[in-house]
Structure formats: structure tokens, C-alpha cells
Amino acid sequence: MAAEPGTNRETADCNLACVWLVCIVAAMGGLLFGYDWVVIGGAKPFFEKYFQLGGGALSGWANSYALLGCLAGALIAGGASDRLGRKRLLVAAAFLFTVTSIGNALAPDFAAFVAWRICGGVAIGLASALSPMYIAEVAPAPMGGRLVAINPLTIQTVACTATTHPAGVHLAMQSTV
Fold first, then answer.
1. Which member of 17, 30, 50, 177 has the greatest number of CB atoms within 10 A?
2. Domain segments of the chain: what residues?
């Protein structure tokens, strides 16, 4: 049965759809977190060759440098979001993800690559702390848990996909060389 225009039922349906949309968009922070966190493992053979690392400690650090930024992002997220608002910081984290992705792609040397990885880690730390908080704030109380669960679901789904997809690309690249 369709709701009559202007009734509370129609408004409630519209609001619920809007809440779901906002929560899914906010969970994109989780998607970017999962992707950025894991995809570097698939890029390892390519950046090792590009920067002539030859494996070892430098290669391991290149994978791990983002964690330093994650720590910084998570540490500043709470206080900064109280002052500036969660939505504003989520937008800043999205911008930072974009800029650091371009910076990593265009890094002229290993030091620049590492610096961009650390900055990308800040975006990961911000997104991992702010996305679930923002979702919890906009979600109606009876649906809060269900909607907040979208965030870790996106992290794990993308982490799983990003882990398996680069392996397939790497195998395909090896078979053509």
C-alpha cells in the first residue's frame, strides 16, 4: 500500500532512505581504509622494482609506514572532530585519500613514496575513527548497531578483495613476461 503524499509514512520512508544513503556514503571511509591498508601488499613487487629496493627491510617498511600515519590520524580524530565536526573531518579525510593516492602514484623517489604513505595513513586513521562515529550519530537508535556494522563490513570485504585481486594481477603479469 502506497503512502499518501505528505503523510508521516511517506516522510518516514524518505528519511529512512536518506539515513541509509548517508550511512553507506560514510562507510566509504571503511572501504578506503580496507583498500589502502591491504592493496600495498599487491603493489610490493612493482614498487620494489621501481625504487630498486631488492626486498628486505626497506620493502617491509614501505608496507608499514602507513601505520605511523594511522596512529596519528586516530589520535587526532577525537579532539579534532569535537572542534570541527565529524562530517567536515570525513570530507578532509576523503580529500587526503585522493591527494595521497596521486602523490604515491607520482612519487619520484622512495622518500616521497614513504612520505605519501604516511599521509595516506593519516587519512586511514581519521576514517577508521570517524566513520563509525558519524554513522552512529545519524542513525536512528533502533537501527544504530545495524548501520554502524556497515563500516567494518566494508573494511573486511574490501580487504579480502584487495588481497586476492592483486595476486591475480601479479600472476597474469608474470605469465606475459
1. 30
2. 29-51+60-176
Task: Copy the grid coordinates of residue 117.
Answer: 604513505
What pLDDT does 1 receive? 46
The 10 Å CB-count burial string (b at 16+, else e) for 28-37 is bbbbbbbbbb
Look at domain 29-51+60-176 and name its CATH class: mainly alpha
Q: Distances in Å between the alpha carbon of 123 and those of 24, 145, 152, 161?
A: 18, 24, 16, 20
For residue range 67-89, what is the model confidence (pLDDT) as tens digits? Answer: 899 999 999 999 999 999 999 99
Please tell me the distance from the alpha carbon of residue 114 to that of residue 153, in angstroms, as a whole number.
28
Please report, as a single letter, which amino acid is at residue 47. F
Q: Report helix, strand or coil for 140.
A: coil
